[in-house]
Design goal:
Length: about 160
């Protein structure tokens, strides 16, 4: 396979990174952490969500699509996500929505591989304490290792406390 667009983006931005090819059979964040020999909280899953913000007088408000970068060590708490993002509610996109909205296949969804501005990008604040994090390179079984500060800068992520 050729070089993923996410790698081209990091090279263009001058970001130090390592591409790890572990194979598409590695499906979960926990399995990826094990394959890479790293802590699960350093492997960030990219979770596609929809946030709903409160409208005037309890009316439905605006909706926003979001990519949430969350450590693989724990499940994402949607109530905490909504509260941290300032939304009334948060819901997970189903597989079809996630693939349609991002243009990527499940297992390869990455904030580094979607066009900028289409999603609100949120990253779990705890991930910023790591010296290196691992995120999908935009195709199943390919993982990028980089500094969290570089990741935040390149994808324009907002840090939120999900703890």
């Amino acid at each position: 396979m050729g070089k993923p667009n996410s790698v081209r983006l990091l090279e263009r931005e001058g970001v130090d990174h390592v591409l790890h090819e572990v194979g598409p059979e590695v499906k979960s964040g926990q399995a990826m952490a094990q394959a890479l020999g790293v802590k699960p909280e350093w492997v960030l899953r990219t979770i596609v969500c929809e946030l709903e913000f409160a409208g005037p007088a309890g009316a439905p408000g605006r909706r926003a699509k979001a990519l949430v970068l969350h450590g693989s060590a724990a499940e994402l708490d949607l109530k905490r996500l909504a509260r941290a993002a300032g939304a009334a509610r948060a819901r997970l996109a189903d597989r079809g929505e996630a693939e349609r909205w991002t243009g990527l296949v499940r297992g390869g969804i990455s904030a580094l591989a979607v066009p900028p501005g289409r999603f609100e990008v949120l990253i779990e604040a705890a991930a910023l304490a790591a010296s290196r994090v691992f995120v999908s390179a935009g195709r199943p079984g390919a993982e990028l290792e980089l500094a969290p500060a570089d990741l935040v800068r390149v994808i324009g992520a907002r840090s939120i406390d999900l703890g």
